[in-house]
Amino acid sequence: MDVVLETDQLGKRYRNKWALQDCTLQLPAGRIAALVGPNGAGKSTLLHLAVGLLRPDAGAVRIFGEAPYGNTAVLSEIGFVAQDTPLYPDFTAAELLTLGAKLNRRWDGALARNRLAELGIPPRKPVGQLSGGQRAQVALAIALAKRPRLLLLDEPVASLDPLARREFLQSLMGSVADAGTTVLLSSHLLADLERVCDYLIVLHAAQARLIGAVEDLVAEHRQLIGPRHGGEPIPGVAAVVRASHTDRQSTLLVRTDGAVVDPNWTVREVSLEDVILSYLAEGDAGASHAEWEVPA
Ligand SMILES: Nc1ncnc2c1ncn2[C@@H]1O[C@H](COP(=O)(O)OP(=O)(O)OP(=O)(O)O)[C@@H](O)[C@H]1O
């Protein structure tokens, strides 16, 4: 398996608080991966470490086997669209493409111009005067024109309406499928991610909680409904991820390691969204309650 992005006990600290801690994960080549987690989980921090904007305080991050911080050879292989697609607002899209051509040795200007022409983006208007969706498309066109082997996108569709979101993701998928680009895309919009991603990384409270191919993760999780469960082992269940109980009944989201054949349990398939939400719900809110001096 070719690995494009790899972290090994990676950590980044702001003052005395870890924004990312002990984070170990791998992203195989050719995947379109979703990076998911609640606000403050460490998603932007991970992306910024991967594109060399931040330097690790612990552990390591490697892109194509090399540390990205200060490594221009590696950085030339990466396209990055940061949160809120920051672009120089007084520059027109055409001027930004000229700039891109000067700064990147493998620049494909025709690709960017074609994309923006097809989308009807005006070339001579300052990008500060474009809509959020149009700006996002300009930023994506610039990132794609670099012909990156790895494309990292930090909440690229957050400001877009549902139709613009769908068009953005479709055009992204079309472009990367042909080029075989590996993509890591952070978003809170789980339904969108389920449509376009085939790999998942869930971060929670600065740590990686769940990593794997979407198909495998969905296949190995199940919902079980049955008599109230007191924690005793259930054959076929490797771990209970989340449990809710009434007086007489329990509903469990479990990770299986075989078939659950106990007739006491009704076994149901789950969606990717069910799996993600279960892993996010098992997080611990205790620390922030202590900091706010209120009971958890
Ligand atoms: N420049 C900074 N200085 C201090 N703390 C920071 C800084 N950037 C991020 N943090 C903290 O690091 C943690 C992780 O932040 P990060 O932006 O990586 O989360 P995120 O998962 O991208 O969140 P969101 O979904 O809200 O964008 C948070 O607790 C945040 O407050």
UniProtKB/TrEMBL annotation:
Residue stretches making up the ABC transporter domain: 5-230
Organism: Micromonospora echinaurantiaca
InterPro entries in the cross-refs: AAA+_ATPase, ABC_transporter-like_ATP-bd, ABC_Transporter_VariousFunc, P-loop_NTPase
Keywords attached to this entry: ATP-binding, Nucleotide-binding, Transport
Domain of life (superkingdom): Bacteria
One MF term in the entry's GO annotations: ATP hydrolysis activity
Annotated protein name in UniProt: ABC-2 type transport system ATP-binding protein
Pfam families: ABC_tran (PF00005)
